[in-house]
Structures are given as structure tokens and as C-alpha cells.
Prior knowledge:
The complex is a heterodimer of chains A (about 240) and B (about 130). Chain A is built from nine helices and nine strands.
Amino acid sequence: MPEQWTLTLRLYRQKANEAPRYDTFTLQVNPDEYVLDAVERVWAFHDRSLCFRHACHHSTCGACGMRVNGVEKLTCITPLRAVTQNGAVLTIEPLRNFPIVSDLVVDMGDLYRKMERVNARAVLPVTEAEIEHPASTWNPEDAQYLRLSDCLECGLCISACPVAATTAAYLGPAPLAAIQDQGMRRHPELLPLADSEDGVWRCHSAFECTAVCPSFVDPARRIMDLRRQVVGAKLRQVFGK
Amino acid sequence: MNNQPSSRKLLTWFNPLGRNPGAWAFILNRLTGLGLTFYLFLHLIVLGRLAQGPQAYEEFLELTKSPLVKLGELLVIGAVIYHALNGLRVVLTSFGLGIRQQTQMFYLSVLLALVGTLVFAIRMFAG
């Protein structure tokens, strides 16, 4: 018999032209289930008008990002046990810094447009991936093998970033990390975007993006590395190399 | 529905709930920066008293000997030390140095600011 917890889910609700409110639902859950499972159970057994995004249920699609007790989480891989306890109230809210479409669903269009603007790679050669194999262990012909990019485009980093909260034009952690992933030397055409007012220099080093990233992208480190690359590219321009 | 970025959300910069040490450093850096800017204006006003003659200046200096003003000066000292050390932390991490240690560098900045403030407090109140 699996362990059973009684949880109260406090869900943010807002439909078009309505004031926001919170609805509460009391559920019996297995604490090893995920937050998304609990939200789905509310939809399945309590309120079919609840809107939320989800698809793959295994942290590949990046659709189910929400704020759980105020912190950005990919809910399909966040066990209930990790964020709450038996008898507690669990507050679920939509991501910040994106327009709310309905309830927990936000419009991610702005992020997707920015990712397109920086030509973010969906896949990349394994030889260029930052994974456990050092670059020296690959053979040149291994470049034919591709892997998915680490970034899920889930938007958690944009929601957590304090600068993204106040500056809509800021490219944001995920797009800047996507520029770093491509590199200034191989893609000098991205220099004006990275080196712009709303590019790499707008970051104020709060490191929240890395703290909430569910996919080891480590955007903060990439932004800092991109700064180094931008300075290098500018110096090369000055000295004509 | 309104959930978009906006400059009116400036106060969210100062909300530490659910945030991590990197954001606490960000918040503290802004608070100390604003505090030091306010202090700079106060400092200029004090210097302005010089133009009103030695008596006005001396009268103002008497006021600065009160415990409340001394407490304020301690806050300035703590803010200066933290802001300077965190500034170094931001410079280092901005160029890729010590990113993995940024949390420890933040804690060290706070610790050194507290120690420095304590040293000044002992000298100011014991002397």
C-alpha cells in the first residue's frame, strides 16, 4: 500500500475579463507522484474548466512550467514530497513575466520569438554538447551524430529573472544561453544582439535562472561566458583579427 | 491578462521569498546602493554647513555624537564593505571567474561586512 498524503491544492484561476482568484481542492495523493499529477487530478475529478499546459510528462517538452509555492518548477519532474508535506497547502500559480491566457496557461510567444531571433539550435552535434565526454574523446566523424539541445524553452528562467520582470525587451537567460551555445567565433552575426542594450550586459547577476533551470543549461554561467566572448569579439574587431 | 514585464514591477526586485543566495546578493546590493546614494546626499548637505560658518558646522558635529547617528554610521560602514565586496564578486563572475563559488563569495562578503561593522562598532562605542 503506497503512502497516502492529504494535500490542499490552492490553484490560481483567471479567465478572460475576470479578476484573478484562488480555488482550493483537497486531494489524496501519493507523495512520490509529481505536482503535475495532482493538478491533472483536480482537472479530472474536480473541475474540468481548469486550464494548464502539459504534454510529454518527462521533462522534454517544457510545457508544464508553473510556480509551486512561489518557486518556478517543471511540474512533471517535481515530486510532491520535494515541495510540500502531508496536510499542507500547495499553491500553484502561472509563470511570471508572460501574459496569462487562462488559469495556469501563459502565452510563451515572446520567448519563442526571441529564441528564433537568435537562431537557437534544437539539436546540435554531440561533439559540441557540454556533456560528460571531454571534447578530446570525440572523433571528427562523430559530429554526424546529433542530440537534442539541453534547453527545453520552458520559460522558467524568464519567470525567475528579476531583470526580465521589469524589462520586456531584455533577451533573457534562455536566448542569451542559446547565443553562447553557438559561439561568437562561429556566429559573429549574433554579436550585435548579444552586445546590445538588452543583451548580455542587461543581466544583473542574480543567478535565479540557473537556480530554477530544470535541464542543466546553467544560463547564468553561459551569460557570463558570453560576456567574455563578446569582449573577445570586440577586441578582435579593434585589432582587426 | 496582465502578467507581462513592466517597469512598474520594480518592487519585485526586492522580494526575497522563494529566491536563492544569488538573488539575495542582488537584493542586498540594490538596498546598500540606494542607502549609500542617500548617504552621499546627506554627506553633501553636511559639507554645505561649512559655507554657513564654523559655528553652524560645530553645532552639526555635536549632533553626530548621538547614539542614533552613530548607529546610522555603522549601517553606512556595513553597506560600504558589503557593496564593495559584492561588486568584486560581480566583476569576477561577469568574466567567468568563480561562478561555481558565487554563493560562497556572497556569504563571505556578508560575513566580512558584519565583522568589519563589529570592529568599527567596538571602536566607536568603546572609545
